[in-house]
Amino acid sequence: GQQLNQSPQSMFIQEGEDVSMNCTSSSIFNTWLWYKQDPGEGPVLLIALYKAGELTSNGRLTAQFGITRKDSFLNISASIPSDVGIYFCAGQLKSGYALNFGKGTSLLVTP
Amino acid sequence: DAGVIQSPRHEVTEMGQEVTLRCKPISGHNSLFWYRQTMMRGLELLIYFNNNVPIDDSGMPEDRFSAKMPNASFSTLKIQPSEPRDSAVYFCASRGHGRANEKLFFGSGTQLSVL
To answer: Which residue from B4, B91, B102 is facing A48, i.e. has the nearest CB?
Structure first.
């Protein structure tokens, strides 16, 4: 599959801080998605992006589809302890294709 | 609305034994995916089906792995014989068709331990 480079690998922050993570690829993607995984569970979809430049929010989460179509960003504002988990980016080359996943960003939030 | 259902949640077996993992996709979804997750390699696609037909099985590690989808509501992933390096969490995921339905929905996974 296509290589997705996700960074940072892990983050350790205090409650209330904002968080930014990103994902880059050498390939152009048709769709970008962001998932969150809690311990012992499967990844859950947070945000889906379909057009270059698209900026979409889901509560305190905001994600952007990069203009070059080779990257995407996820921001979490005013983090809270329940934001703890692993965040994955996923890209799709074409409609109907399987998703390629990044290695994940592990987020820890201290009260 | 039930999500993707996987069974068992946990499986502990001895090396050499056959392991069968099961998945029921979301009703109406026409694509089904099997992923494996490990610390070292992250989420790896093993195989996926469209309309019950295998489309890409290039991620299946070896002949010991096989997957079937006999109908739209059921799929199995079988490992025979199992080896310790197969220990991982195996996820099944499904999605509908059309651009607006590219979202993939995951089951809770099967934690496999091969001793």
So the answer is: B102
